[in-house]
Amino acid sequence: MEISGAELFVKALKEEQVEILFGYPGGQAIDLFDALYGKNEIEVILPRHEQGLIHAADGYARSTGKTGVCLVTSGPGATNLVTGIATANYDSVPLVCFTGQVATSLIGNDAFQEVDIVGITRNICKYSVTVRDRKDLGEIIKKAFYIARTGKPGVVVVDLPKDIQRALGDDTYPETVALRGYKPGSTVHEGQIKKAIGVLAQAKRPLLLIGGGVNIAQGQKEMKQLVESTGIPVVTTIMGKGAIPTGHPLYIGNIGIHGSYAANRAISGCDVLLSIGTRFNDRITGKTDTFAKDITLIHIDIDPASISRNVKVDIPIVADARKAIELLMQKTSRLDCEAWLCEITGWKEAYPLKRKKEGLTPQRIIEQINHSFQNSVVVTDVGQNQLWTTQFLELDENRMMLTSGGLGTMGYGFPAALGAKLGNPNKDVIAICGDGGMQMNLQEMATAVVQELAVIVCIFNNGHLGNVRQWQQLFYQKHYSSTCLRYRKQCKAQCRNPGSSCPPYIPDFVKLAESYGASGIRVTRPEEIEAAFQIARRNRFVPTVIEFMIAPEENVLPIVPPGSPLTEMIMDSEMEEVIL
Amino acid sequence: MKKRWLCLFVENEVGVLARISGLFSGKSYNLNSLTVGTTEDETISRMTIGLYSDDTTFEQIKKQINRVVEVIKVIDYTDLPTHSKELMYLKVLKCSEAEKTEVFRFAQVYGVSVLDFNKDSILLECVRSEKENDKLIKLLRARVNSPIEIARGGSVAIEALQ
């Protein structure tokens, strides 16, 4: 039977078991939306901006393990996806983005709302393609889903010209794909695993470094078993946090420029490092020439290009994290690292992450989240709010954290939380944002209200772009250049002392929430935190915005100064530097 | 830093060349020459890439290219026995009579074809290895002061018979 391209598109989505589509219509996507009209199997969510749309699809994909699907129009609809594409691809999130396009006969004519989105996204996604012939449509969509969700997952962009959407053609959707150049590996090199086990058996101070790859491969259960059967202590990257429960006795903490003292010290003092699913990004290594020097490094990663890129690896193993862990588990036995563990525990006790006792601090708020929300998804924005969350949030099988780790996209948190809530209606979904990032995708408050998404939005309001302000305070002589969000025309140009006499903050987040029909609460004292969360939990059909008025110059500590090795950390704002 | 050669087999599709060249520019990899053409299978194109890099970067370049969905196969030609040739045109302009004679002599001695000439210009064609072409340019410049327009095509390489 002959059907239109748009009808085949809808059929393909059904075959791929797409339940939710994040879509924003426009002139060159109107046929696709028409084909979706009245198809109840696919729920179409209409956000208020394409950037919010793609972050929502990203949050949905990360929190469910399913592939997120976006549909937007050509030109500005497509370019508004760009930040979200880079965000998702950087963190290996499977997304398929369909973009409308002008008819093939108009491509290259500078037509209205024409943009070369395939060219624009070529370097920030896994694969991008324009469908130029109706007969290729089914195969290309099949390929797109396959490429997005296999191997190291990522983003695929499929550009659909208007005439292809309208053209009649074959109604078959292929069941298999054949790709000569793309064969995601499924085997694990046993010889390399044996080598790794041999080295581990000799180790006196072994350490496991877990990255996001373990969470993506859904290998948390196996990871915990491996840790327990070998007794090797564990540090994580931000993206790897939660791969084993953070309350586990063998879990030390995050490493990196905001890592804990004990974790950074452990990675600098171990003799064998078994790292899984991390690319040794500069945020975790500090100065690379001194990182993990004089140790034997075993590195498991699904992406050969991540191996020996930033640090030199002694035993490379290209494999899916979960499969490699399973094989390691079969072949390793318990290691004797009691003395080493004692040493690490000593560091942990001597220098725990600092918690201020007074006032409404981010730590207190996050600790209350740990206490109040057992079965939850916590989504952070980017900046200090994110770093505090990665330091203090407790994770286990029931609580997961989503964050833009690679690209560090401000404005990610709130829309991603909406996507997470759509995918996890029975869980509490909490967005932790700063007052800066919250304003980058604020318009999605309307989406949250109309879709009855009862997310809890915690805004840590310090009146600043806090993370940059912190750097200015510590490394740029307190030159608060363009980081104060209370700034008004009458303020003096070089203010270094934000305080109670500053102009009032805008917007009023509480009133703003209320204007959208959401619930708004302002918390100024620590005693009010719990009550605010109780109110939020009772709001079952509307989002709740809780604005926490935190100190304007609150810092994320410890911090490794730029260009320094991990062993040089600033432990408190008085610049007390601890050199290990 | 060392001169390297790569041979790529890629899908013969729109945008693949841009994807490969974009990878080099986006990641700041050096790229000396890149040629592309079809093969015995019309769905596959073959690229020959010449570049300078150190060992670590070159490893990374190979891995990054391999990651591209449209790339079917990557072969490192650097240390393999291969044949490699580059087409080069040299247009010697504004020659005096004496210079013209010198260029004809040059062409005869070094086996370079003279495609055409007029009262003050000569067009030469040579198909040699990239290195030999470099040398020919140097030799010609040593003989004549006339301006030379140069068009080089980049190298095409194939593995030698065993």
Structure commentary:
The complex is a heterodimer of chains A (580) and B (162). Helices cover 35% and strands 18% of the residues of chain A. Chain A has 580 residues and is α/β, with parallel strands linked by helices. Chain A has three domains: 2-170, 3-Layer(aba) Sandwich (Rossmann fold), CATH 3.40.50.970; 190-350, TPP-binding domain (Rossmann fold, 3-Layer(aba) Sandwich); 362-549, 3-Layer(aba) Sandwich (Rossmann fold). In chain A, the strands form five sheets. Chain A has a six-stranded parallel β-sheet, with helices on both faces. In chain A, strands 11-10-9-12-13-14 form a six-stranded parallel β-sheet, with helices on both faces. In chain A, strands 16-15-17-18-20-19 form a six-stranded parallel β-sheet, with helices on both faces. In chain A, helix 2 (30-36) links the parallel strand 2 (20-23) and strand 3. In chain A, helix 11 (220-230) packs parallel to helix 14. The relative contact order of chain A is 0.10. The model of chain A has no long low-confidence stretch (mean pLDDT 95). In chain B, strand 2 (33-38) and strand 3 form a beta hairpin. Chain B has two domains: 2-80, ACT domain (Alpha-Beta Plaits), CATH 3.30.70.260; 84-159, Alpha-Beta Plaits (2-Layer Sandwich), CATH 3.30.70.1150. The two termini of chain B are 29 Å apart. Chain B is built from four helices and eight strands; from the N terminus they run E-H-E-E-H-E-E-H-E-E-H-E. Chain B has a four-stranded antiparallel β-sheet. Chain B has a four-stranded antiparallel β-sheet with strand order 6-7-5-8. Chain B is α+β, with helices and mostly antiparallel strands and 162 residues long. Chain B is 32% helix and 41% strand. Chain B has helices spanning 16-26, 55-67, 97-110, 130-143; strands at 2-11, 33-38, 44-53, 71-76, 82-92, 113-117, 122-128, 148-159. At the A-B interface, strand 6 of A face helix 1, helix 2 and strand 4 of B.
